[in-house]
Design brief:
Keywords: ATP-binding, Kinase, Nucleotide-binding, Transferase. It comes from Streptosporangium lutulentum. This is Protein kinase domain-containing protein. With about 475 residues, the chain is α+β, with helices and mostly antiparallel strands. The chain folds into 3 domains: about 100 residues, 2-Layer Sandwich (Phosphorylase Kinase, domain 1); about 180 residues, Transferase(Phosphotransferase) domain 1 (Transferase(Phosphotransferase), domain 1); about 160 residues, Orthogonal Bundle (Lysozyme). Helix content is about 35%, strand content about 10%. It has 14 helices and 15 strands. The strands form 5 sheets. It has a 6-stranded antiparallel sheet, with helices on one face. A 3-stranded antiparallel sheet has the order 7-9-10, covered by helices on one side. Strands 8-11 form a two-stranded antiparallel sheet. Helix 2 runs antiparallel to helix 3.
């Protein structure tokens, strides 16, 4: 394979550190990857990622330095079986070769190929369901530790010799500062969510949330399962326009006909037009494992003991982090969100955390969700108040609940009894939709959302706060929320 036109052309046999450059593997716009062999060791191989320096402008050089630093910071902070491992970093010292002198070289584990190499138009990738679940493992770990990948796509998911996959290419990763991070104006048009370019460009870049990775996850999953992108058009620009029109409600989501029926809901949830409605990576990991047959689906109309325990295990996997991060204990994987030893039924803690972390709206928290459920029903999943047409653990009215279910279930009014696995996530969806509408109303945002749940956001806005008739309810939510906060 020739390297003419590559971002960084490195001759075979070139030495950097203890490594000798071997065959070329792949190239991008700013970096090129080669096989590396440690001198004197025939079996020690790695991937050498060279970042260009000699042929770029000062502005481009700053951009490359920023990308390299992002990647290095991520590797120093996180280690996980689903993230490619960085062995060492090197700087080329070769004044006689200005094209390479000063180049940053990342020495990483060598993969067999990227998932992009396996995708053929119209053909599912063998083992796609397992691969999707493994991608979710890496993504859940990153998100739980406070990082956004920023450039998730098949090219950046590597398959190792044992057939497992690892996330790679962390040049656009960003650490979350508060609720979001910042990315430079870059990314694959087919995998960048439509809302990205609607964000104002600041000195730090575009604001980005973990929901951007979830959109890219949905696109990637669709490619692996069908060999097609979810938006069908001849060019990347046309596909991006189609995605934008869908996000603005101007066209429906038409997924490939070959997408397995069981996965349609999974993919469409990732591609929810409202970023705040997209599920978390931990939740999608559990669902992917269930669809792949690796986890037994919970029986309908029963407590979520089995499902909750399994989801706990996966969330622990996603939350255990590297140096400098805080992870929940194995005894209580939800201790960072909900007080250990409280009266929240253990079988509902996973669902409550999922609902309370569904979006980044101020006031939303798992403790708020738990406080609302305690106030509404005392965690009774079998509540039935026929006179008020309210049912289940969250006292949903079925005709209202309908609009806070996943899109594929909104065409039919649900029939009681309403299970916790339906009712609790819907509370999170409700608050993610309604809390932004209460911006500007004075008061505690979470408690305003709870009052809106009991009445409506119109009532709260008209009163510019909690009306007198709902204050006792809100005080109970406040008390319970305080009892459940860690």
């Amino acid at each position: 394979m020739g390297t003419e036109g590559w971002a960084v052309s490195v001759p075979r046999g070139y030495r950097v550190g203890d490594w000798q450059v071997g065959r070329p593997i792949a190239t991008g716009s700013w970096a090129s990857v080669y096989e590396g062999r440690r001198e004197g060791e025939d079996t020690a191989r790695s991937a050498l990622k060279f970042l260009a320096t000699g042929t770029v402008t000062r502005r481009q050089l700053r951009h490359l330095q920023d990308m390299a630093q992002r990647e290095i910071r991520l590797h120093r902070s996180l280690q996980h079986p689903r993230l490619i491992r960085l062995r060492e970093t090197l700087v080329v010292d070769d004044a006689e070769n200005p094209e390479l002198d000063g180049a940053c070289v990342l020495v990483m584990d060598q993969a067999e190929r990227s998932l992009a190499d396996l995708i053929r138009k119209g053909t599912p990738v063998p083992g796609a369901q397992r691969l999707i679940a493994e991608i979710c493992e890496g993504l859940a770990h990153m998100h739980a530790a406070g990082w956004v990948h920023g450039d998730l796509k098949p090219n950046n998911v590597l398959m190792m010799a044992d057939g497992s996959v690892r996330l790679a290419d962390f040049g656009l990763t960003t650490e979350i500062d508060g609720t979001h991070g910042y990315l430079p104006p870059a990314g694959s048009a087919d995998h960048v969510p439509p809302e990205r370019w609607g964000e104002p460009l600041s000195e730090r870049g575009y604001a980005v949330w973990t929901s951007a990775d979830i959109w890219a996850l949905g696109v990637t999953a669709c490619q692996l399962l069908t060999g097609h992108l979810p938006f069908d058009a001849p060019t990347a620009r046309a596909r991006y326009v189609a995605a934008t029109e869908y996000a603005e409600g101007e066209r429906p989501l038409t997924l490939p006909a070959s997408l397995p029926e069981a996965w349609r809901s999974w993919v469409s949830d990732c591609l929810a037009p409202n970023p705040r409605s997209r599920p978390g990576a931990g939740r999608q990991l559990y669902r992917a494992r269930m669809l792949a047959g690796e986890v037994e689906a919970p029986p309908r109309r029963t407590h979520w003991r089995t499902a909750g325990a399994t989801l706990m295990a996966f969330l622990v996997l996603g939350a255990v982090s590297g140096a400098g991060t805080v992870a929940p204990s194995l005894a209580d994987p939800f201790g960072r969100w909900l007080r250990t030893g409280s009266d929240i039924p253990p079988e509902y803690r996973a669902l409550i955390v999922e609902a309370g972390t569904r979006c980044d709206e101020p006031g939303l928290s798992p403790a708020l969700i738990a406080g609302m459920l305690k106030t509404e029903s005392d965690f009774d999943p079998n509540l039935s108040d026929v006179a008020k047409d309210e049912y289940g653990i969250a006292r949903w009215t079925p005709s209202v609940l309908r609009y806070y279910l996943p899109p594929e279930h909104q065409d039919v009014v649900p029939t009681p009894p309403l299970s916790p696995e339906v009712s609790i996530p819907a509370v999170g969806r409700y608050l993610c939709v309604r809390l932004p509408l209460l911006a500007g109303v004075p008061g505690d945002p979470g408690l305003l959302g709870a009052a809106a749940f009991r009445s409506s956001d119109d009532v709260i806005r008209e009163a510019m706060g909690v009306p007198a008739r709902f204050r006792a309810y809100v005080e109970r939510v406040r008390t319970h929320r305080a009892a459940y906060e860690p």
